[in-house]
Amino acid sequence: MLYRRPGQATGLKRAWKYRYMSTGVPPWRPAAVLDEWVLKEARPISLRQLTFFGRTLTEDRLKSSANYVRTELPTRLAHRLRDMQTLPYVVVTNPHMSHVYELYHKAFDTFRRVREIKSIEDNDRFCTIIQDTLQEHLSVIPRLAMGVLECQGLMKPEEMDRFMNTLLRSRISRRVIAEQHLALTETYHSPWHFPNAKDDLDPNAEFVGEVFLKCNAREVVENCGKMALNLAKQAWGLDSVVPKISLQGHLEATFPYILSHLEYIVGELLRNSIQAVIERYKDLPGTPPPIEVLICETPQHVIIRISDQGGGIPKEFLPYLWSFSKGPRRETRLKNLYQVPKMAATMQELRFPDPETTNPTISTSAKSKRMYDRSLSSLTYRPPDLRLGMGLPMSRVYAEYWAGNLELHNLEGYGVDAFLQISKLGNKNEQLSTRASMDAV
Question: Which secondary-structure segment (H or E) carries 419?
Fold first, then answer.
């Protein structure tokens, strides 16, 4: 048995901390605690299940929600930490990757130590920890993206993309359950909340926490379209001619969804189409052709097709459309990412730096505006004309998270058709890569 002199442990910690600060290498930590949590399975949840805790929100249900989040967050973080430990040493010691690793380990160590939530006071203290962690982790997306680009050639591009997709999908999953619990806690403390109400969800209610129960595809397209066109006019000049957006199909189709996810996907697709059409027709007389949006409702899905006549995508770019780690303009993308220290991956954070610029807030109703008043996107900002090279792959991560799909059909020389398929019933579990290898290199 090894014996340690008094103060030796503190000295070792200081030595490892100095090594991390001077070299960027993550400090060594005992693996036993992480091994214990890696053995646990994450418990995926559906949109329908997310709304369960909000039905007649009693103290017991709020505490049940808190304890679910309390155990899920360290479990999901543990698997992603183990994934990072299995990366080649030269990759995990990249300063950006190491930064993310340290954030994850700090959050894992914090959440695993939270004791069972037994009272509203316990829950309120837990919510403070969640809020602080969510804010601290706003740097994760840009730092991961920079790390992946700087590590080109150190791993196979397919393996790096798979790693990036896994981390981003897990990040979405943690934020969904954390922000849902924060929203339920806010509802519980609101003056209009009545814990002894009937055990039925108000049929006229629009939100349960962060879940928008009656998400209308037409309204989302219209609102995202207005914002995208406004941003385009600011980028190209207020007198520039921008394409119209025409809508047809099943315009009254509704479904439960996380509104910010859908807005990000639709916003990115419309921004791409608007930019392509403007660039192709800016020097030509007449009005550019419209961007056509078709909404199709089936018993199981809602499908949104966005079609433009922007000339299509050059074939040399097609292999890189869905990749975070490969493609041209690497140095430009890195330079642009350095200008985005924080990123929530929402449509609301897109705005120009001029404080007098007016960007319309996306909102489908007065009730939905409260979501954005407290949204973490209010803490982030990125100019919409900065090309980061991650809009499409990030949109696909969002789409596939709730068992949906995003595809592009390219007609080079003519235009692009984008197809977004959404699960309509809200009964599909979040798509997680839950398991991690026990053996780290």
Answer: strand 415-423
Alpha helices by DSSP H, 289-356: 330-337
Give the tens place of pLDDT for each residue, 61-95.
Answer: 999 999 999 999 999 999 999 999 999 999 999 99
Confidence at residue 327, expressed as pLDDT on a 0 to 100 scale: 81
| pTM: predicted TM-score of the whole model, two decimal places | 0.86
Three-state SS annotation for the chain: CCCCCCCHHHHHHHHHHHHHHHHCCCCCCCCHHHHHHHCCCCCCCEHHHHHHCCCCCCHHHHHHHHHHHHHHHHHHHHHHHHHHHCCCHHHHCCHHHHHHHHHHHHHHHHHHCCCCCCCHHHHHHHHHHHHHHHHHHHHHHHHHHHHHHHCECCECHHHHHHHHHHHHHHHHHHHHHHHHHHHHHHHHHCCCCCCCCCCCCCCCCCEECCEEEEEEHHHHHHHHHHHHHHHHHHHHCCCCCCCCEEEEECCCCEEEEEHHHHHHHHHHHHHHHHHHHHHHHCCCCCCCCCEEEEEEECCCEEEEEEEECCCCCCHHHHHHCCCCCCCCCHHHHHHHHCCCCCCCCCHHHECCCCCCCCCCCCCCCCCCHHHHHCCHHHHCCECCCCCCCCHHHHHHHHHHHCCCEEEEEEECCCEEEEEEEEECCCCCECCCCCCCCCCCC
Scanning the structure block, which residue is given the tokens 């709730």? Answer: 402
How many C-beta neighbours within 10 Å does residue 61 have?
Answer: 17
Q: Render pLDDT for 38-50 as a digit per residue (tens, 0 to 9).
A: 999 999 999 988 8
Percent of the chain with pLDDT over 90: 66
**DSSP conformational letter for 174:** H
Helix (H, G, I), strand (E, B) or coil at 125: helix
Q: How far is residue 114's CA from residue 107's CA, in Å, rounded to a whole number?
A: 11
pLDDT digit string (tens) for 308-355?
999 999 999 999 999 998 888 889 999 999 999 999 888 888 877 654
- In this prediction, residue 26 has a pLDDT band, given cuts at 50, 70 and 90, of low
302 close to 255: Cβ distance less than 8 angstroms: yes
Q: What number is the average pLDDT over the span 201-222?
A: 83
| CA neighbours closer than 13 Å in the CB half-sphere of residue 436 | 29
